[in-house]
Amino acid sequence: MSNVAVFDQNAGMGVLAESPLAHVSGVKGGHTPGVVIREKAFLGYLTLRGNSEDVSFQDGVKQALGMPLPTEPMRLHQNQHKASSIQWLSPDEWLIVVQGGTEYETEMALRAELTGHFAVVNISGGQTLLTLSGSAALEVLHKSTVYDVHPRNFPVGKAVATTFAKATAIIRRPTEDTWELIVRRSFADYCYRWLIDASQEFGVDYE
Amino acid sequence: MFYIYCPYCGEHREESEFRPKGQAHIMRPKDPESCSDEEWADYLFFRDNPKGVHHEMWVHATGCRKFFNMTRDTVSYEILEVYKMGEQPKITAASRVVGGEK
User: Fold this and answer.
1) Rounded mean pLDDT of A177-200?
2) Residue B99's pLDDT is what?
3) Cβ of B66 and A90 within 8 Å?
């Protein structure tokens, strides 16, 4: 167990939490919207840093999360139920996304398993996750980012930090037809408005 | 627009993901206390501005956020090589003249 002062930053159900997109009203795109956008609010986010070549570090992460540490660039690993994930951010940095409310126990599990030089930081609340699906979701991404999101370059299980509109975002592809965008809290409104505008021509549904 | 290979991500990415961070391989004087004003000012303020081969530092700002080095031709804008921090360039102004590439 690492000797670090930690506390549960989740205030619990008694305190009102507000998503960065709490103020936006829904958009209805008719019977067959080309793009369906949903926000997955209040997920738990942790950044993990450490030495990926250290076998005990790899083993510890696998023990604590039930998912192997992605050591190849831009790889996204999900657990069996696809409820939590770990993705490669840089050679010594990973982003862990877990169900809201479980971030503290995840952090404690990691701290119990890992030894030596590493860092786990709870960054929940600093960003939000939007899912894009529908027949035109890929078209909207093509319009919005400089990264090549063509399926030949972006298979399922890839996660890329890049520029989205004029903001930065993480684009992930957890399944064949769903795309996830992780955007900064302060850019959430901008990215939302961009998405609605870019999706307008295909018909967009957001609630 | 540059299409830059990030040695950490292992992919080519658009220039808008990167930020240039100036001349590479600038060594901080080992003993600043005993530097002359000229040596210290040279370290702090004076940078090369070559016509031709130049070694630069770049950061993959919206990607992996790692710094790396790039050898670039300031005349043709051609990126000659990209290498990680701590590594030395394979292509230099001297090697290009001797190699007779230009």
Assistant:
1) 96
2) 58
3) yes
> A26 vs A120, A150, A179, A193, B29, CA distance in Å?
36, 29, 19, 12, 59
- Interface check A160 vs B, CB under 8 A: yes
The alpha helices in B2-102, defined as continuous H runs, are 37-45, 93-99
With an 8 Å Cβ cutoff, is A162 touching chain B?
yes
Q: Give the closest-approach CA distance of B22 to chain A in angstroms.
A: 22
Question: Are B17 and A162 in contact (CB < 8 Å)?
Answer: yes
Q: How does pLDDT run across A50-89, given as a tens digit for each residue?
A: 999 999 999 999 999 999 999 999 999 999 888 899 999 9
pLDDT-flagged residues of chain B (< 50): 102
Task: Compute the nearest-CA separation of B76 from chain A (Å).
Answer: 24
Give me the domains of chain A, ranges plus CATH numbers.
25-41+126-207 (3.30.1360.120), 43-124 (3.30.70.1520)
Q: Is A168 on the interface with B (CB under 8 A)?
A: yes
Say if residue A141's pLDDT is above 90: yes
CA–CA separation, A185 and A117 (whole Å):
29
Shortest distance, CA A166 to any CA of chain B (angstroms): 9
- Rounded Cα gap, residues A46 and A6, in angstroms: 13
List the single residue in B with minimal CA-CA distance to A169.
Answer: B62
Q: What is the number of other CB atoms lying within 10 angstroms of the CB of residue B96? A: 16
The length of chain B is: 102
